[in-house]
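Supplementary material to the annual report.
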Amino acid sequence: MSSKEEVDREILLPGDAVEEKDFKPGRGMFKEDEKIYASRLGVKRVRSGYVNVAAQSGRYEPQEGEKVIGTVTDINSSFWMVDVNAPNLAVLHVNDVPWMVDYGDTASYIEVGDALLIKITSVDEQNKMQVTMDSEGLKKLSNGQIIEIPPSQVPRVIGRGGSMISMLKKYTDCKIFVGQNGRIWIDGDLEGQYLAAKAIKMIEENAQAVGLTDLVKEFLEKNTEGF
Amino acid sequence: MASNEDIELLKDGERLDGRSFDELRDINIEAGILKRADGSAYIEWGKNKVMAAVYGPREMHPRHAQETTKAVVRARYNMAAFSVPDRKRPGPDRRSIEISKLVSEALEKVVFTEKYPRSVIDVFIEVLQASAGTRCAGLTVASVALADAGIPMSDMVAGCASGKIEDQVVLDLGKNEDNYGQADVPIGYIPRTEELCLLQMDGNLTIEEYEKAMELSIDACEEIYELQRGALKEKYSTDLDEDEIEELKEGVE
Amino acid sequence: MKEILSNITKDYLYRLLKEGKRIDGRDLIEYRDLEIESDWATSAEGSARVRLGDTDVIVGVKMEVGEPFPDTPDKGVLTTAAELIPMASPEYESGPPGEDATELARVVDRGIRESGAVDTKELCIEEGEKAWVIFIDIHVLDFDGNLFDAAGIGAMTALLDADVPASDFDDAEEDEDYLLPIEHIVVPTTFTKIKDQIILDSQLEEEKIADARLTVSFNEEDEIVAMQKGLRGVFKYEETMDCVQKAKDIGREMREKVLDEVDRENI
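Predicted assembly:
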C-alpha cells in the first residue's frame, strides 16, 4: 500500500486535531485556539484550502439544490409534509407542484405514502426545509420501488463518473435514480427491479471492499437470466 | 455508601479480585451493533453489559420541548429487569431518572447542538447486566454510539469511577467494593479539553484522598478514551483501492 | 414516530410475493438465520439472546420466593412481561407497555403457561403460603420483525437455562440450586398474511403491509398448545390448517436448535 493511500484513508474521530494549519475548517471540522479539529467521524479530505470530513454515517444533511426522494407523511390545505430522511420534515407548498391546486384540494393530487422526486429549494437557520416538484425531471413516482442506503454511501452506488450506476442500469434494464438522501428509485420489470435492488444491497454491504465494481459486475452477469 | 466493618475488601493489602489499586476491570467496546438505530455501541466492563443506541437528530416530540436555537440531547438510562440480583421492576425510578438527567447534560456539553434547532438527539442506554459502575459504562458507550451516528461533537466523553475501600483509594470499584466501600466518585471526562462533565461523590474522603481518586480516574479515562477510539476505528477502517478512494473524494464536493 | 413505507414499495413487495419471491431473497416459507445464545446475562437465573435476522431480543428469567395465587395454592407463579424499548425502533416510545408489548407478553406467556411447559407444582414450597415466582422478562433490542418467534424461542431457552436459586433464599425448601423443572418444550411459529399470500418469519417491511398474523405453538409431542391470530385481516380455515401443518415441522427444527444450545436432556 502506497503512502498516498495511507494518508488518503485516514479516519478522523470527533476531537481529532489535524496537522494542516494553513487550511480552513470545512465540512465536519471546527476551529478552536488556532487549531483545526474534526467534529464528526469520517474520512479526511484536503482540497482547495479546506480540510473536510467525508461523513461515513449519520442522517441526510439537506443542501439547497440537491435532488432527493421523499415520502409524504401528512397533508394540509395548502402544503404537504415530506419525509426526506433528514432531521426535520420538508414542506412542499401547493405553489411548488406542476398543477394548479385549489385550496383544500391537496389530497386529490398527492396522498400520504406517495413517493416524490423533489429538489431542496431552501434550508433556513431553523432547519426548516422547502422543497419543489415544479422543475424539469421532478415528479410523483407512480411505479417501481424505493430502497434506502446510508446517505454516506451514495457516491459508491453512483460510482466514479457514474460508472456503477450506468452498469446497474445496463444489466437490469431499469430506470434508477439515486437521491442524495440515500433513497433510490428503481423502475422496470419485476425481475430487473429485483436484481437491481439485490445489487445495490450488495454495494451497501461491501461498500468498503476492494474491487467492488468487478464484484458487482460479476454478480449482475451471473444473474441476468432472471428469477 | 453503607460502610460495613464485617465485609473484607482487602486481603493482605490486596483487592479481592487481584487488581492493583490503579487497575481497571477488563473493558471491551464494539461500535455499530444495531440495525434500526442511527448509531449504536456495546460495552462489557467487568461483568457490566451495557448497550447504547442513538436516534436523531430527529424532530422533537412533544413540540413544546423543542428548543428554537439548538437540539436537545435526551439520554434515557434504563435497567433491564434481569440485570440485577433482585428483579428490577420495569420503568423509571428516581435513580434512573437522575442518571438520565446527568448523562444528558454531560453529553450535551460535547455535542454541537446548535446545528440542529428544534431537534432531539435521543440516546438510549440499556443496562443488561449490572455490576457496579453502570453510569460510567453508560456514558462511555453512549459517546461511542453518538460518534457512530455521525453526530458532530467537539470530543467524546469517557467515564470512570474511583473510590475508597478500607481507607485505601482505588480505581474502578467492583461490586462488593461499591456496596461496602467508604466512598465512590464517578466522573465524566472530556480528554481533549481536560474538563469534567459529570461529577458525583458519596461517602467520605479527605481532600488528599479526593485528589488521589481524581488522579486515578482521569488517567483511567485517558485509557478508556483510547478504547472508545479503537472501537470506532475498527468499524470504519477500510481497504480501498485508488479508484474507490477517488469516488469517495468526489462525494465530498 | 411512525415510519411510512411508500405506496409503490408496498405494491412492489406484494408483486414479488406473487412470484414466490421476497425482498431479502428468501422463499415464502423460510426462516431467517437464527442464533440462540443461552446464559447471556449471568445476573439472571436463566437467560437467552436470540437473533433472528436483524431482530435482536434478550429474555431473562428471575425467580424469588413469594405467595401462590389463592386459586392455585399448590403451584408456583409464572409471569411474563415485555418491553418494547425505544432503543429497538424509531417507532417505539418510552413509557409503560402498550398494547403491542402486552399482546407479545401474553402470547409468549400462554405458550409456556397453558402448555404446562414449566412444572409449577414442583415450584410450590408450602401450600397456600410459599412458592417460587418466576418472572420472564422480554427485552427487545433491535426490531426487524417477528418478535413473537424470537421472544418465544428466547423464553423457552431462558427457562431451560434457569437454575432455581434455592441457596439464596432462607425460606426455600432446598439448600442447593437446581435446574428449573421443565415438562415440555414449546416454540411458536408465526405466519404473516399479505393479501392472499402467506409467509413465514416476516421482516419489518413485510409487517408494514401485513393484513393478518397467525402464531401456532407446538410442544415436543407434536401437539398444538397455543394459537393467536392478530391484526385486522382474516384467515380461511384451510389456510390455518396449512399453517398448522407447517408449524409442526418447523417447530421440530426449532426445538432441536433450542436443545442444542442449552445442552439439557432431563425434561
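Residues 237-262 of chain C form the longest helix (26 residues).
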